[in-house]
Specification:
Blueprint (H helix, E strand, L loop, with lengths): L1 H5 L12 H26 L14 H8 L7 E3 L5 H6 L4 H8 L33 H15 L5 E6 L6 H12 L4 E7 L2 E2 L2 E2 H4 L9 H4 L3 E5 L3 H16 L5 E6 L17 H8 L3 H11 L5 H24 L17 H5 L7 H7 L15 E3 H15 L3 E5 L15 H9 E3 L4 H12 L4 E5 L10 H8 L2 H4 L9 E6 L14 H5 L5 E3 L4 H13 L4 E6 L6 E3 L13 E4 L4 E5 L2 H14 L5 E5 L2 E3 L3 H11 L2 E8 L4 H10 L12 E5 L8 H7 L3 H13 L3
Parallel strand pairs: 1-2, 2-3, 3-7, 6-7, 9-10, 9-11, 11-12, 12-14, 13-14, 17-18, 17-20, 20-21
Antiparallel strand pairs: 4-5, 8-15, 13-19, 16-18
The structure holds thiamine diphosphate (TPP) and magnesium ion.
Length: 695
């Protein structure tokens, strides 16, 4: 058996691995098994809470595969990821402390077993979402490719995950772009209770490689060297720039899916039959037979692992728990100086990219040239692309076609297909490419062709991008922007007219911005690109052609600061996006009747500018809130609640009024479409009534 492996052409020495590395593999297999047995005991003692997915039985896949990597290579892992972490070099003290929910755990007690991640070790994390790591691997692979060099990424996933849409979108995208990713299916025969036979139409998951035009390989996942060999072949392929490989490693999990599993879907005989092929003694015996180590040395390795585990428990038990006063730390990447004084202090990226004299909210002298919102956005993107190689644009038809709304016109010709990257129609993989590449050192600006279709990318956005920083204990940043053309008024009906910003606002970890002028479009977009958090950039389609003065040099408009567009003493009107324009028109009409509106353009929905709203309401005593999204659950409710809880409440001279979209999918008929969202006359009527109302 040994000889057979040694004869492979690409292996010059038996296994192509030094004796030290082979022994390290054996040690890590023991360590993984013992770690999990101990973790399970701790769980039974009530010291580990939540749930835990053990990989016992599957160690040969994790350890065999990662043995084929260099330390600077990357992995994405799964909910069953203890073996991946240990193989990648994670310290088991901090792993155990994480399970025990301690501050010194790998993720400072914020992630637990399902989110164990360490970017310093090249691990983009375990993942509680089945298939969640697969789109991230596209981003990781893309970052590796764009940054140059020959690093690769292994993407681990289960047989169950192979039936998620993310699998198809991601592998296709990685194959099209020849990304250096090895797709490694840990086929343990079940996705919870569903056997592969019941869940997969094709007998062999590796056969699916044909559909993506990449090599596919099936391997004995109980044999660490067979896994190593197959992965090594795929790594060589990937390092050479030839793209991904799909490997199906046949293995088995000894424990149930998780603690609550009664295992009614499999027989004891089946489990015992697989245990006869236990990968650890099999590997140990082969090393002994090959003279790599003696039986005594092998036994000593196991004892060493036992001692390490005992020490990890002892260490973990003594570690402090996280303090409740730090509960919300690290949801966002914060630049303290910027947060303290955003109107004077530049984000670090702006200073690096454009210099310390880059203006914040620069004035627009009368002779300032005018641009449309589209042109202003394009100028921001062009200046960011010129300034920083890490910035790239990605989205459907943004390149050759210049984007569905023409916003990226000419950028493909100027910066080329790598940095203005057309994608297959795969929203979840696009968002995954943004998230995965941003945690791997890039600064992507993604475009979702219509905001409506972020619904197809919500998993990567909400469950990955928004949470990664926090889940990973504050050790990762996700500097990405998603541009989201939004809103009705184009006759495109219900599925191309959404205003979903309040969905996004409700997700801790996301920032949300919505400019209403060309000046803000440019300044806010540069500020969004500078931000080290995922920023959702909501663009009103109806405003793309709106013109206004825009300074030529780079500048920023800080996120989180509202603008008072018009001063007035009778009614405060807070509006977002296109509604700002309508409110200003209404204000001009009402001024002729002697009613003066104070118009606040929110600009940023998260964070948002409470002080400007409170100050204004204290002056006017009346508040009208206007947005396009449906009223119920819309962002206006947040503003009203905030004012009701603020000192401004005592100044109110009339009940607050909200205007928003009707409770209806946007209809096709122009007449109905117009009626579905606030128009100038609705705002005039509501504001007039409010101005005359007394409590
Ligand atoms: C998107 C999603 N759907 C369902 C679940 C619940 N769940 C967690 S693990 C799992 C089975 C996954 O099977 P597989 O991918 O084969 O991995 P394995 O558990 O066998 O390692 C399920 C259904 C989940 N976490 N995420
Ligand atoms: Mg499985």
């Amino acid at each position: 058996m040994l000889q057979a492996i040694a004869t492979h052409a690409y292996l010059n020495t038996p296994y192509d691995l030094s004796p030290e590395r082979l022994m390290d593999m054996l040690y890590k297999m023991h360590l993984t098994r013992l770690f999990e047995e101990t973790a399970f005991q701790q769980y039974s003692l009530g010291k580990v809470h939540g749930t835990m997915h053990l990989c016992a039985g599957q160690e040969a896949v994790a350890i065999g595969a990662i043995a084929a990597l260099r330390p600077d290579d990357l992995i994405t892992s799964t909910h069953r990821g203890h073996g991946h972490a240990i193989a990648k070099g994670q310290d088991i003290n901090t792993m155990m402390a994480e399970l025990l929910a301690k501050e010194t755990g790998v993720c400072r007690g914020r992630g637990g077993s399902m989110h164990m991640a360490d970017l310093d070790l090249g691990s983009l994390g375990a993942n509680g979402v089945v298939s969640g790591g697969i789109p991230l691997s596209v981003g990781a692979g893309l970052a590796l490719k764009l940054r140059g060099g020959d690093r690769v990424c292994i993407c681990f996933f289960g047989d169950g995950a192979s039936n998620e849409g993310a699998f198809h979108e991601s592998i296709n995208m990685a194959a099209v772009w020849k990304l250096p990713v090895i797709y490694l299916c840990e086929n343990n025969q079940y996705g919870m209770s569903m056997s592969v036979k019941r869940a997969n139409s094709a007998a062999d998951i590796a056969d699916r490689a044909v559909a993506y035009g990449i090599p596919g390989d099936t391997v004995d996942g109980m044999d660490a060297l067979a896994v190593y060999e197959a992965v090594q072949r795929a790594v060589v392929h990937a390092r050479a720039g030839s793209g991904p490989t799909l490997i199906n490693a046949l293995t088995y999990r000894y424990y149930g899916h998780s603690k609550s599993d009664k295992q009614r879907y499999r027989t004891k005989e089946e489990v015992e039959a697989w245990k006869l092929r236990d990968p650890i003694p099999a590997f140990r015996d082969r090393l002994i037979a090959a003279g790599i180590l003696t039986a005594d040395e092998a036994a000593a390795l196991e004892v060493k692992a036992q001692q390490a585990i005992a020490a990890a428990i002892a260490w973990g038990d003594q570690q402090p728990e996280p303090a409740v006063e730090h509960l919300t730390d690290d949801v966002y990447h914060v630049e303290p100086a910027v947060e303290a004084d955003p109107e004077r202090v530049l984000p670090a990226w702006v200073e690096e990219a454009f210099g310390p004299d880059t203006p914040i909210n620069p004035p627009c002298p009368p002779n300032t040239r005018e641009l449309t919102c589209s042109e202003a956005l394009r100028e921001a993107m062009r200046q960011a692309l010129e300034a920083d190689q890490r910035v790239f644009l990605i989205g459907e038809d943004i390149g050759v076609y210049w984007g569905a709304f023409g916003v990226t016109q000419g950028l493909y010709e100027e910066f080329g297909p790598d940095r203005v990257r057309d994608t297959p129609i795969s929203e979840n993989a696009i968002v995954g490419a943004c998230v995965g590449s941003s945690v791997s050192g890039m600064r992507p600006v993604g475009e979702i062709q219509f905001m409506d279709f972020i619904t197809l990318g919500m998993e990567q956005l909400v469950l990955q991008g928004a949470k990664i920083r926090y889940m990973f204990g504050g050790k990762a940043s996700v500097p990405m922007v998603l541009r989201l053309p939004a809103g009705s008024g184009t006759g495109a009906a219900a599925q191309h007219s959404e205003s979903l910003e309040s969905w996004l606002v409700n997700v801790p970890g996301l920032k949300v911005v919505a400019p209403s002028t060309p000046y803000d479009a440019k300044g806010l977009l540069l500020a969004a690109i500078a931000d080290n958090n995922p920023v959702m950039f909501v663009e009103s389609k109806l405003l793309y052609k709106a013109r206004g003065p825009v300074p030529e040099d780079p500048y920023i408009v800080p996120l989180g600061k509202a603008a008072i567009r018009r001063h007035g003493q009778h009614v405060t009107v807070v509006a977002t996006s296109i509604m700002v324009v309508r409110v200003l028109e209404a204000a001009a009409n009402l001024a002729q009747e002697g009613i003066e509106l104070e118009v606040i353009d929110l600009r940023s929905l998260k964070p948002y500018d409470r002080e400007t709203i409170i100050g204004s309401v204290q002056r006017t005593g009346r508040l009208l809130v206007v947005h396009e999204a449906p009223l119920i659950g819309g962002f206006g409710g947040e503003i009203v609640a905030m004012v009701a809880q603020s000192p401004a409440f005592a100044y109110l001279e009339a009940p607050i009024v909200r205007l928003g979209g009707a409770e209806v999918p946007i209809p096709y008929s122009p007449k109905l479409e117009r009626a579905a969202v606030p128009q100038v006359e609705d705002i005039v009527a509501a504001a007039r009534r409010l101005a005359r109302t007394e409590i």
